[in-house]
Structures are given as structure tokens and as C-alpha cells.
Give the backbone structure.
Amino acid sequence: MSKSVEEEESASARYPTATTVRDFHANVAAVRARIAAAAERAGRDAASVRLLPVSKTVPTDRVRVAIEAGLRVLGENKVQEAVRKHRETGDLDVSWAIIGHLQTNKARDVAAFAHEFQALDRLRVAEALDRRLQAAGRSLDVFVQVNTSAEDSKFGMPPEELSAFLKVMPVYSSLRVRGLMTLAILTPDEARVRGCFRVLRELRDRARADAPDLIGDGELSMGMSGDYEIAVEEGATCVRVGQAIFGARALPDSYYWPEG
């Protein structure tokens, strides 16, 4: 059996596919229970952790069932996929968060409908979004993405550039910085994963001490299906969970990682 097949079968067993409202209720309840347990281990209130379901690669018919089950804010990595699903669910009560890398030529799409944007890592993108939002008379909550794993393949700015970036952000008045976001390294080594999350928390704490007005609520968006419990233990206020809610994807994580 090839490694990819083994990974796929393992993911399918770990992440049961949700196709009915009852399935979604069960999967979400299981995730929330794990969040609560992780929060308790860290001496935190589980209510301080926001669960953002991520519908990446999930067909719209199943997304509609998820919305029926009560998921009212969904995350998408790719703007084109988010635009399509936004259009195909326009009759339903749902908001969309863009959590993946954004090219400046897609800023108009994000400015038109997104509830929040969690992958801001360049001033060119901030400028493009602000210009489009100003024209639309809208504002947008944003998270600044930081590359805490130091991997060349990852999007996000180097940690040492964050302070200067935050100081410039007030120029873009339609963008409301709410906090920071990161992707941990993909590895079974828990210590290395935990280290990525600690770096983001320390950056947030330093920003709060130096210029609290620039970091908004100081949220920390970190943790996905494979590592959100560690993220909660390290201070996450938002976890982006896809497979553990919707079910295993058709291809293993190694195919999708990194998102870029």
C-alpha cells in the first residue's frame, strides 16, 4: 500500500464524513469537547475559543447541509472557491472568512463579500483591499499572518517584520486588525508544532505591551484539524477546523500543505 493511500485511509477513519445535519452536529460536538478539554488543561475558558469551520474542497450541497446544521461562518482558502460558494448559498444565512493567501488582483472579490480576512501579510494587499473597501463603503476585520515555522514554502511575514507592519496599518482605515494568524509546521513532532504557536503568542504579547492600539483584540488564529488542541493549550482564540467537521479530504494533508 502506498504512503498516500495509507494517509488517506487513516484520515478517513479519524475524520468521519458529515453528510446530514445529525452528522454535522456530532462532529462539531466532538470538536468542541476537545477544545473544552484542551482549554481546561491550560486553565482557560473554552468560551474564549472561536471555532471556524473550514469548508475547503467540500461540495456546495454538503456546505448547505452544514449551514442548515447551524454553521453560520465558514472559512475558505481559495478566493475563487469562496466566491462560487458565496453565490451558490446566497439564499442562506452564512458569512465567509478568507483564510488563504490573497493575490492583489483578487482583492475586489474579497472586499465585496468577505466577513473577515485572516491572511494579510503584505502592504500591497492591504492597500488593494483598502482601496476596494473604501469604494464599496465597507470595512473588514483582518488578521496579520506570520510565518512562525521559518519555512520558505509558507506564506506569512517573518516575525521580525511584524512590528513595523502593524505601525503602518492605521493608514488603511477600512481594515480593522483583530490579531495574528499562523500555520504551524506539518510534523508529528508536537514540540515543534507547539513552538510555532508559542512564537505567535509571544509576538502578540509583545505587540500588546508596545502598541496595544495596533493589535486590536489581540486574537490568535492558529490550529487546524491535526493540531488545534495544542493551539488551544498555547492560547489560540480561533481554531480553523475543516476535516474534523466535514470529513477527510480526498487527498492527504501532504498534498495540500502548504496552501500556497
Summary: Confidence is low (pLDDT under 50) at residues 1-5.
